[in-house]
Amino acid sequence: MLFVDTPRRPIDMFNPDGTPASCKETLTWHEGSWEQGDVVASMGTAFYEMLYNTLACGKELEVTPQQVRRQIAVIAQCYRQNPRFAAGPIRQTSANSGSHPLVASLLQLV
Question: How many domains does the chain have?
Fold first, then answer.
């Protein structure tokens, strides 16, 4: 767990006046350093090497379509559970039963 020394606190989504609450907790920062090369080149190279190894050598993808579908499903569920924070107006239609348009789009991918 990343914030092991940070105490749990209740999540206040709204201020007393009804406006969205901002983060207010104090986090203990842990600093470190590392050598960083050319990030753009190394990420691009790593992606294409992984893709080549998958297509030409039969190795498995590092991020599978099933993992991406699971991530999209989690994001869609977050929007379903809290549409107040979803981008744009909430439109209820018989097709999406109150889901945000983004949720409907994400669910088509799942």
Answer: 1
